[in-house]
Amino acid sequence: MNENNKFVDLKKGKNIKGGLIAAIVIGIILLIIVFSSAVAIVPAGSTGVITTFGKVSETAYTEGFHLKIPFVQSMEIISNKIQVYETDASAVSRDLQTVNSKIAVNFRVRSDASASIYKNIGHDYQQVILMPAVQESMKAISAQYTAEELITKRNQVGQEIKEQLEAKVSDYGIQIEKFNIVNFDFSAEFNSAIEQKQVAEQNLLKTETEQKEQLVIADADAQKKVKAATAEANAIKLKADAQAEANKVISESLNDTLIRYQMLEKWDGSVPKVASSANPLISMDLNDLAE
Q: In total, how many domains does the chain have?
């Protein structure tokens, strides 16, 4: 009996020890569960919204380590990082052309509005707020421009859509960082008309360029001829001036004695048979010649 009692006591001791270890393990697990339930970590670029039995807190918690009541409170994470929302938008231009566009919006939720957005909208704020605001803004601004202006004034159109979109969503706590019109798409007929117009404008530009080149060449040729004519006229004037100067020198150097001497040098000794005042020999004094 003693041996049996010892065996029973040993078995009871092992059971107690095993139960104690199991209780400790369970206690540790419960402590871990309670601790993890009491701790909330908000990641970088986000804010945390505490709910108590479903009731949303009025303030949001910044990034980092926070404590909450276990099993009573829970924390919802709202991202405040820049997000991209892409969608297709359809509108009608001022000249009644259908415009299909691809839109990309960079936005973020303001940290001070995280609690309000979660309380009133939840996590689906892109579809609830952004989508209708983008569509409405696109339609409103596109209707102010012709289809051609939507292409040529694309940056201006995008800026106006962004401003109107900001006015629609800022009260909800959504901040628009950037608005991009990825592309415009029109009907095949309109695209063909635009292409034909571009070809006509290019041909006109080519013709105008060729005409300008011809005018430049003609102007250069005219200037060349003017320079040549001016040079020739200057040469003629210089020649005439030189001849006049020579004539002046010759005229100033002539006198009666020199003239008579040159006449005698050329006289053959015969007396003219016809006497007239036109004959210079008549005016000569033969006595002077004899001397």
A: 3
In a domain, 285, yes or no: yes
Q: Which helix (H) or strand (E) holds 182?
A: strand 174-185
Indicate the average pLDDT of the chain. Answer: 79
Give tens-digit pLDDT for 27-51: 777 666 655 666 788 899 999 999 8
pLDDT of the residue at 55:
87
What is the per-residue pLDDT for 84? 94
Inter-CA distances, 99 with 89, 138, 150, 159, 193, Å: 8, 10, 9, 17, 15
Cβ–Cβ < 8 Å for 97, 186: yes
Same domain? 119 vs 34: no
Q: Are residues 107 and 154 in the same domain?
A: yes
Maximum Cα–Cα distance across the chain: 206
CB atoms within 10 A of CB 82: 13
Q: Are strands 55-61 and 46-52 parallel, antiparallel or unpaired?
A: antiparallel
| Residue-wise DSSP of 220-258 | HHHHHHHHHHHHHHHHHHHHHHHHHHHHHHHHHH--HHH
Residue 46 lies in a domain: yes
**54/264: higher pLDDT:** 54
103 & 156 share domain? yes
Question: Could you list the residue range(s) of the whole structural domain that residue 23 is in?
Answer: 2-79
pLDDT, residue 135, reads: 94
180: CATH: 3.30.479.30
Q: Which segments of the chain does DSSP mark as H helices, in order?
A: 2-38, 114-120, 125, 131-142, 147-152, 154-169, 188-253, 256-266, 286-290
pTM for this predicted structure: 0.56
Q: Which helix (H) or strand (E) holds 62?
A: none
Tokens of 221: 């040729």
